[in-house]
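Contributing new complexes? Match this layout with adenosine-5'-diphosphate.
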Amino acid sequence: GLDHHWEMHVCRARGGARIVHLIDRTGQDAAERMRVDFVANASHELRTPLASILGYIETLADEAGADEQVRGRFLKIMLNESLRMQRLVEDLISLSRIEAEKFRPLDGEVDLGGLIGEVRSELSRETIRLDIAADVPPVSGDRAQLSQLLHNLIGNAVKYGRAGAPVTVRLWCDPAGNVRVSVTDEGEGIPPEHIPRLTERFYRVDDGRSRAAGGTGLGLAIVKHIVERHRGRLEIASIVGTGTTVTVILPAQGSTVIKR
Ligand code: ADP
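Output block (do not edit by hand):
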């Protein structure tokens, strides 16, 4: 046809080869495009570790007498690939659950200061510092979801922060009465052109780095959905070479909107 719309994607395969995907976008609207992409990306993310596990199983089955050391090494790789698939499946389940609960009312009262303390001990990292204001009232929210939000943000700050550098979690009320939580790292930072896209599913600034750190590419998409369910707002401020601060702004308890 005359108005065919092709989109090209290049990704790197094992051994440095490039794979080029050509996708025919003709007639797709933005929402459909996103859904099609999501299914394609999720399948691809699962297929890669699965292919690797199958390859190692076949090799081990062929070489029944393979020496102990080789076998141990293969098993370790298979374990890591399986864990990667597990993290991905868990994140996919979280994402669909949060989306399904989008319109369910928030019936809980959550003390964020207490929750931040809990998440800190679950992560058991010495480098996580807390700065919790004393006068912050509880927010209306879903405790499990807010815990996941904190895990994802603090997890990113640890993953992308400089090794051993502090990560600071702050909680305070702003002058308009909104509740704010911020997570600051001293990491490599994020170039500004990437910031608007970080909450897209599977969007990564540095693919290799995210994967090496065990990232699924879904963490901030999950955060965005949780923030939306809580009628909040997400702000990401970053300076390359210095670090990143991600701030979640939530309406004060009893309010359904963020006040200016
Ligand atoms: P991932 O599982 O890859 O960490 P996320 O959705 O949590 O996925 O984040 C998307 C991308 O945003 C990451 O791959 C990374 O490039 C970037 N990113 C997120 N948080 C930070 C941070 N604190 N510092 C630098 N880059 C970050």
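Reviewers usually confirm one structural detail per submission. For this one: The two ends are 50 Å apart (CA to CA).
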